[in-house]
Amino acid sequence: MAPERPGPARCIAQFNIARLRHPLGHPLTKPFEDLIDETNARAEASPGFVWRHGIDTRAPEEDVYGDPFVTVNLSVWTSVEHLKDYVYGGFHRDVFRRRKEWFESSAVVLWWAAADERPTLTEGKRRLDHYLANGPSDLGFGFRDVGRGFD
């Protein structure tokens, strides 16, 4: 994992989950698994990247959902714009467009975090659960909610 980069006083944290169509190790999931390391490395080298949780989708001992079909990702970025540029641009965009091949469903939650904050997977899960149950709030919101009182 790349060293942390200094950022502004306030950053954007993101937690996302996706439910696999097939288990890890399945031939139809292998193309996704083969892209994990490069996807993470490119995130870490992207402008605005601050930190990501070291979880590896292939490490079941770090499972906060108790479900081997659920993958998670947690990271912190200097701005929503930098996060969007990474998610919807370049290499990740190409991987993201293929998500239906590997995943049944996915969800993401964003929230503002102090620059020195390093959220836990449990916190990400709590915020996502709240967002899915209650909609956007200061606890969590989606990309579409930015600019609607949550920034």
Q: What is the approximate shape?
A: globular
Main beta sheet: 4 strands, antiparallel
Low-confidence stretches: 1-6
CATH hierarchy: architecture: 2-Layer Sandwich
Strand content: 15-25%
Order of helices and strands: EHEEHHHEH
- Mean residue pLDDT: 88
Helix content class: 25-40%
Could you please describe the fold and organization of this structure?
This protein is α+β, with helices and mostly antiparallel strands. It has one domain: Alpha-Beta Plaits. The protein contains 5 helices and 4 strands; from the N terminus they run E-H-E-E-H-H-H-E-H. A 4-stranded antiparallel β-sheet has the order 2-3-1-4. It is globular.
